[in-house]
Amino acid sequence: MKHLISIACLFACLSLGAQTKVTKKTAVKSNNFGITYSLPKTSLIIQAEVIKTMAKAGPYYRYAEKYLGVKNPVEEDRTFFRLDKLTLADKGIPDTDNTYIVEFKSGTTAPYAYLTEDGLLCSINAEYEPAEEKTQAGQAPRLSQGGEPEMPVYFEELLMAGSVARQAEVAAKQIYRIRESRLNILTGEADNLPPDGEAMKVVIQELDRQEKALTTLFTGSSYEETSYYDITLTPREDLDREVLFRFSDLLGIVDADDLSGTPVYISLKALQRPVAGIPDPKEAEKKEKMMKGIIYNVPGKASVEIQISRRSLFRGEILIAQFGYRENLAPAMFEDRKKPVKVYFYPETGAIRQIIQ
Question: Is the pLDDT of residue 17 over 50?
Fold first, then answer.
């Protein structure tokens, strides 16, 4: 394998919008005015939103059309999954082959830098505020569509009915009584109207609840649970329909080698590989060894497409550090005390975001 794929389903309740932690490193005499940092490799985080639907048949589903006119009730208990959507984010991870120590001269105007906890460079001579991470991984499973269905209302006449057919008939009659009572209250024709608007609201809500609970005896009920899965991919080269994971309607997301699921493919192709100006790879390597000052990445651009059964789930473009090359900021940039230079970097790719002088 020339790249790394890992998959995780996170259910622990973590706060949404957590931020990358950064640390201020100061170049002082005690560390020989040096700061150690790593350039990043770009890691792709594909987040899959999976909806689990749990359907339960009602005991009177055979009579749903006869009494209520419902033609497609739930006829059997079943659980199935749906792959709702995918999102793609980039994250920088330390490239252990590209770790540098930059030494500033005593008295220069570059006395500090901000690094991530992993040692990726965020800024020099400037305060750094990381952007909020909007991924939803770590959220607990979320119920939707009102959560689990309410327990049906069993009244005396229904309980005393002998056969299932008779029970269905009694339940249907009660549904129509509830509808008639609600209509009489709303039109003011009921014998005992609620004393005020708030009381009427409570009565109507209770009638709605009873009708819904009885109706589920015929139509059945279902509720949904949403979960989030993170799949991490660190590419080293182009990918042509690589199996990212597999998806099963009965099991949800399964591993890439689990044949019970339909494969979800990822294709990644470099669109733009920056050229450092030295066509000979040996000369480029020699130049890189002679670089001094702040080494940074010039990333390349790649197209990404994720598909299942020839249906596109995601299509877009992203910058990838591995598809680019490295450059440097000359040490002389930081020697002017009157005009201190501030530099901001993208920790995901190691590229320069902004230079302020």
Answer: no
Q: Residues 302, 307, 311, 316: what is their CA dihedral angle, to the nearest 10 degrees?
A: -20
Its pTM surpasses 0.85: no
- Reported as a pLDDT band with limits 50, 70 and 90, residue 15 is very low
In 3D, which of 226, 248, 261, 244 has the Cα closest to residue 307? 244
Q: How far is CA 128 from CA 15, 86, 123, in A?
A: 21, 30, 6
Q: How far is CA 180 from CA 14, 207, 218, in A?
A: 48, 10, 19
| Per-domain boundaries in the chain | 4-144+224-356, 156-219
Closest CA to 182 of 152, 203, 202: 203
Q: What is the 3-state secondary structure (H, E, C) of the chain?
A: CCCEEEEEECCCCCCCCCECCEEEEECCHHHCCEEEEEEEEEEEEEEEEEEEEEEECCCCHHHHHHHHCCCCCCCCCEEEEEEEEEEEEEEEEEEEEEEEEEECCCCCCCCEEEEECCCEEEEECCCCCCCECCCCCCCCCEEECCCCCCCCCCCHHHHHCCCHHHHHHHHHHHHHHHHHHHHHHHHCCCCCCCCCHHHHHHHHHHHHHHHHHHHHHHHCEEEEEEEEEEEEEECCCCEEEEEEEEEECCCEEECCCCCCCEEEEEEEEEEECCCCCCCCHHHHHHHHHCCCCEEEEEEEEEEEEEEECCEEEEEEEEEEEEEEEEEEECHHHHCCCCCCCEEEEECCCCEEEEEEC
Identify the band that residue 141 occupies on the pLDDT scale cut at 50, 70 and 90: very low
